[in-house]
Design brief:
GO terms for molecular function: S-adenosylmethionine-dependent methyltransferase activity. By secondary structure, the chain is of the alpha/beta class. It is built from 7 helices and 7 strands; from the N terminus they run H-H-E-E-H-H-E-E-H-E-H-H-E-E. The chain has one domain: Vaccinia Virus protein VP39 (Rossmann fold), CATH 3.40.50. The protein has a 7-stranded mixed sheet.
């Protein structure tokens, strides 16, 4: 990863993912989190204000030093203890069945080898534990999908490996999760190719 990936992309993501328009999604996806929470793709901590009172500890997985530094003020203000517990979602340094719930916001679209990461999340979750997720991915409409495939190479270069074409719900099911809740929609006011989003809760079967 070059200078652009290490230093510029985290700042772009911090700005775009920190938009106020994402706050309702963050509040919705964080609802129901409790106990020891695994957060894969912690980024710069934009979910911190939305952790519910039932959360007792967050195990944050974040590879970017710049993103972690940008999270500093939010970490300081957090009422929940947050530990940077690992750098790679594909190999979590946590025991089996050690977390009550898990959180992924706009991460499954980007993380390399997403299948391996989902297997690791399942391993770390307690039986019946839930993964709360919100992400953008492959659109339900074929016309939009064609545009997504055209834009995907550029999207990956500009946003550090972020894909427009990952089928989020399908990936979860294939990994052995059961979808308890799923809402798929286009973000109002945004180009459909970049705003086909899914928000939901998946249970580790």
């Amino acid at each position: 990863m070059g200078i652009y990936g290490r230093h510029i992309v985290p700042r772009i993501v911090n700005a775009t993912c920190g938009a106020a328009s994402a706050h309702p999604h963050r509040a919705r996806v964080c609802a129901g989190l409790h106990g020891r929470v695994l957060e894969v793709g912690f980024g710069s901590g934009h979910n911190i204000p939305f952790y519910p009172p039932a959360v007792t500890l967050v195990e944050a997985i974040e590879p970017s030093e710049v993103a972690w530094k940008l999270a500093g003020p939010r970490l300081t203000a957090s009422r929940v203890p947050i530990s940077r517990s690992g750098l790679d979602g594909r190999s979590l340094p946590l025991p089996d069945a050690s977390c009550n719930t898990a959180l992924s916001t706009f991460t499954l679209c980007t993380i390399p080898d997403v299948e391996a990461a989902l297997r690791e999340i399942r391993r770390v979750l307690m039986p019946g534990g839930t993964l709360h997720f919100v992400d953008h991915g492959l659109a339900p409409d074929e016309k939009v999908r064609r545009w997504q495939h055209r834009f995907d190479p550029l999207q990956q270069r500009v946003f550090g490996g972020c894909h427009l074409t990952r089928p989020i719900a399908e990936l979860l099911i294939t990994a052995g999760f059961e979808l308890r809740e799923l809402d798929s929609f286009y973000e109002p006011g945004a180009p459909k190719a970049f705003s086909a989003e899914s928000i939901g809760v998946a249970v580790s079967a």
